[in-house]
Design brief:
The protein has one domain. The radius of gyration is 15 Å and the shape is globular. By secondary structure, the protein is mainly α.
């Protein structure tokens, strides 16, 4: 179970890192040109960059606390926050009729819920 939780957290961290880098460093106009980034057309630059920074923090929060052994409960807290972020993403993509992306966000939500559930109760990190 521990290995499955590490794999799930690693996958989510990779997704968060990719999304965070693109939202933080790619110009909003370039993001808006892609189908999945259509929502950025009506969003402010500051909002998009803030989401990017939150995703970068999530990538770190899903891995570093456990690896460093400093407040490993933060992995579960980060996973819960990712669940909330994915709810917002699902609502946003649903409004644009992007149901494939809604399903993808649902998969990310399920992975994050698995990590939160596993690290809070079933397989918490032990010091």
């Amino acid at each position: 179970m521990d290995l499955a939780l590490w794999i799930a957290a690693g996958l989510l961290a990779a997704v968060a890192l990719a999304g965070g880098v693109s939202k933080t460093f790619v110009p909003k106009e370039k993001l808006a040109a892609h189908d999945g980034g259509r929502w950025t057309r009506d969003a402010g630059v500051g909002f998009v960059k803030t989401l990017g920074i939150l995703e970068l923090l999530a990538a770190a929060g899903l891995i570093l606390p456990a690896v460093l052994g400093i407040a490993p409960v933060m992995v579960a807290v980060t996973a819960v926050c990712w669940v909330l972020l994915m709810v917002g993403a699902m609502i946003t993509h649903g409004r644009f009729g992007q149901y494939g992306l809604v399903l993808l966000n649902l998969a990310y939500l399920a992975l994050a819920a698995f990590v939160a559930w596993g690290r809070l109760g079933v397989e918490p990190f032990v010091a």
